[in-house]
Amino acid sequence: MAALNFSSTATTCFLLVISLLTFSPTGSNGDYGWQGGHATFYGGGDASGTM
């Protein structure tokens, strides 16, 4: 019975570690800082011609 208990404990710990590594916010959503963007406006200086 002790072997069964160790096996279930090891399985639970393994699944917990895998879950933490898989769903880690820093691992899946890396912080790459701001990226440069650009927009094109057609019309006047206040972009009123874009609507």
Automatic annotation (TrEMBL):
What is the name attached to this protein's record?
A: Phytocyanin domain-containing protein
Provide the species name.
Answer: Nymphaea colorata
Keywords linked to the UniProt accession: Signal
Q: Where is the signal peptide?
A: 1-30
